[in-house]
Amino acid sequence: MGNTSTDPVVKRCLARHDVDLDDHDPRETFGWEKDAARGAFEDEIAIVSDLQKRLFAEERTALLVVLQAMDAGGKDGTIRSVLTGVNPAGVDVNSFGVPSDEERKHDYLWRVHAHAPERGLIGIFNRSHYEDVLVVRVKGLVPQKVWKKRYSHIRDFERMLGDEGTHIVKIFLNVSSAEQRERLQDRVDDPDERWKFRLGDLDDRALWEDYMKAFRDAMRETTTDDAPWYVVPADRKWVRNLVVAKILHHHLEAIDPRYPPAEEGLEGVVVP
Ligand code: AMP
Ligand code: MG
Fold this sequence. Notes:
Strand order of the largest sheet: 2-3-1-4-5
Low-confidence stretches: none
CATH superfamily: P-loop containing nucleotide triphosphate hydrolases
Number of strands: 5
Helix content: 40-55%
Structural class: alpha/beta
CATH topology: Rossmann fold
Order of helices and strands: HHEHEHHEHHEHHHEH
Largest sheet: 5 strands, parallel
Distance between the termini: 45 Å
Mean pLDDT: 97
Bound molecules: adenosine monophosphate, magnesium ion
Radius of gyration: 19 Å
């Protein structure tokens, strides 16, 4: 599948095997103006919505979008914005938090595989199997010799999904530490947002550098032609939304879904 987009921004955000987060500015705007970007975003969403109808009708492939970010990195906001206008029946959103007792009895891919999207759907993973080489690594929840092997499991798992008809795109919403501080503070200060905040979020924030290293290594180890990672600048929500829409547009276009042929003999049928 042709994964090399002709869109320079999509190309710019594509993570290579030597990806370095120092090369990706969370405040990047790509020279866009906020007002013009709104129109561009609406155009992209209209295209995504049309391609999604075809994907759904064809039932040949699925698109799995893996979203990862630090707390307050914008995963929920991205899902809300970018999927506006897409038929909800064609979208399957799953969030992965701390594994349940049941999930803990299985291997770490078990719960994720169970939620891989069926053919015809756009599946969104809000967090994913990557937590098992991110938080699990940073917090030392399993020994290094255990999490290190997971990169190769993940490559194999994703290759299998790809071979069986699931096109995979992985997105790291790259928010800066300063922007995260503001957003977390806003959560604490706003009674309607406070429920999203946990004191434990501060422990993760204190481990920022370790997380960045873990994200970098995860992307270096698992970005492939068939399941690429993108680093999306996420300090400005309007930039983030437009970039993610462009990425989805590109990958849906690469899938090239088509409406199934109509039944024979429908020409001239008059419905009584
Ligand atoms: P939230 O997305 O705010 O609901 O938080 C979900 C929490 O679950 C985050 O703190 C994640 O780090 C944590 N989490 C997700 N997957 C795992 C996992 N496999 N092991 C441990 N913690 C996880
Ligand atoms: Mg949280």
